Amino acid sequence: MSMEIKILGSGCKNCMALEANAKAAVAALGLSAQVTKVTEMADIMAYGIMRTPGLVVNEQVKVFGRVPPVDEIKTLLKG
Fold first, then answer.
1. Per the residue annotation, which of 5, 7, 15, 55 is the catalytic one?
2. In the chain, domain spans
3. Active-site annotation holds for 28
4. Angle between helices 13-29 and 70-78 (to 10 degrees)
5. CATH code for 3-78?
């Protein structure tokens, strides 16, 4: 089963850093995952977050308002 990971954000530096960290975590764990960016503010707000960037895994908001390190993302993906 493939995991669906979404990066919520406008494309700012932190959003790009989160995307890079998420992709690194997926690669390190050898997971099958699709990483997509959500940039439309209405779509981002639908997840109920007030600050970007946001990390959504299989439609569950895991982190928002900060860029977690790769190791933290790996823990979130395994959990």
1. 15
2. 3-78
3. no
4. 60
5. 3.40.30.10
